[in-house]
């Protein structure tokens, strides 16, 4: 052990204190430039490595050592605690009219999640604009916070799995699914609210045909958008060709209404988030018939989702509902097999 310089205990102690002071000053500096709330996870976990690195660089510079060009980048960098826009870490990819807005709004209650407010439609409509354009649409986040976006049409966009994979193969995907019959009625209700002259649901969902024995019979029009979108097995297969099953969380639209806190516990676990969103955040609004929020980042008072969420549906002939249920049954079975979850739709 002769090669160890013979420092006195006193000198070593002074060096140790100096190092601790430098680290403390650096950590404090990081907090002060951060205009948001002090975030324990952010400072002490995610930034740990870069904090040590930057402190070492500062120390080296102070002691008069020259620093390499790579290290010189440090001077141009903003303090590492400053918020900046990043590509999403997680995406809500669908399914239309299954509760995607509710999921996003609930997730926004979490201090470690920041999400784009409106649907960005990058992977379906604006892919040609490039990832930099996409990044600019994202909210600024601190290191350690998740950046999110929801665009339900990604679920059925054929090129979306490949494109999302090209952005980040480790991205986490969430898809909300609900009974395809209710989903179809919800989809129709939305269209009818924009076009009051739209024919009745039954007329669009079913086409009259003649049964083999001459008995009039109606068959489901599987080409009609609101019906086609409820065949979940096909798009799921496409996503699973690109992403392992563990990267995709299927959220139950029914449970998101019946027990939002329990469903959000699954979501938070999947996203690797601390369980912050709990029963305390929700109350059931009997007028609306849906869970609403007690408070959120944007509103300190109790509030529900907008008027376009939770519309009342028109009455649909029960025989048409039954025809649709028969139609979806084999597709639902296939979907349960592929996903490994039995959603128990009637
Ligand atoms: N908490 C809460 N409040 C209101 N609505 C809720 C909620 N949770 C789930 N839902 C259901 O979400 C349905 C709308 O789904 P999406 O947000 O995915 O619609 S969209 O695709 O973004 O247009 C919406 O469909 P409709 O009932 O047909 O309006 C709701 O059934």
From TrEMBL:
Q: List keywords of the entry alphabetically.
A: Glycoprotein, Membrane, Transferase, Transmembrane, Transmembrane helix
What residues does the Sulfotransferase domain cover?
88-329
Q: Where are the transmembrane segments?
A: 12-28
* Record-given protein name: Sulfotransferase domain-containing protein
Organism field: Plutella xylostella (Diamondback moth)
């Amino acid at each position: 052990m002769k090669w160890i310089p013979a420092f006195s205990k006193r000198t070593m102690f002074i060096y140790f204190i100096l190092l601790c002071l430098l680290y403390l000053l650096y950590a404090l500096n990081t907090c002060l430039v951060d205009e948001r709330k002090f975030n324990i996870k952010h400072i002490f976990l995610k930034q740990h490595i870069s904090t040590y690195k930057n402190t070492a660089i500062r120390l080296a510079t102070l002691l008069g050592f020259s620093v390499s060009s790579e290290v010189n980048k440090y001077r141009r960098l903003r303090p590492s605690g400053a918020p900046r826009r990043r590509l999403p870490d997680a995406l809500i990819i669908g399914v239309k009219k299954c509760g995607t807005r509710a999921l996003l709004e609930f997730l926004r209650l979490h201090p470690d999640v920041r999400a784009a407010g409106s649907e960005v439609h990058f992977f379906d409509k604006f892919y040609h604009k490039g990832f930099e354009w996409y990044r600019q649409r994202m909210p600024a986040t601190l290191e350690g916070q998740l950046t999110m976006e929801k665009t339900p049409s990604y679920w059925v966009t054929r090129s979306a799995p490949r494109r999302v994979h090209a952005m980040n193969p480790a991205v986490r995907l969430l898809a909300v699914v609900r009974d395809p019959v209710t989903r179809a009625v919800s989809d129709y209700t939305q269209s009818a609210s924009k076009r009051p002259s739209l024919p009745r649901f039954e007329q669009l969902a079913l086409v009259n045909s003649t049964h083999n024995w001459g008995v009039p019979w109606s068959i489901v029009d599987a080409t009609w958008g609101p019906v086609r979108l409820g065949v979940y097995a096909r798009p799921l297969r496409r996503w699973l060709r690109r992403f392992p099953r563990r990267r995709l969380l299927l959220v139950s639209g029914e449970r998101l209404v019946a027990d939002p806190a329990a469903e959000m516990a699954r979501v938070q676990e999947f996203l690797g988030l601390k369980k912050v969103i709990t029963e305390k955040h929700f109350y059931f609004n009997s007028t609306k018939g849906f869970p609403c929020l007690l408070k959120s980042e944007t509103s300190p008072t109790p509030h529900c989702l907008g008027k376009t969420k939770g519309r009342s549906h028109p009455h649909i002939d029960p025989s048409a509902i039954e025809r649709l249920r028969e139609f979806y049954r084999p597709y639902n079975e296939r979907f349960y097999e592929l996903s490994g979850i039995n959603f128990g739709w009637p």
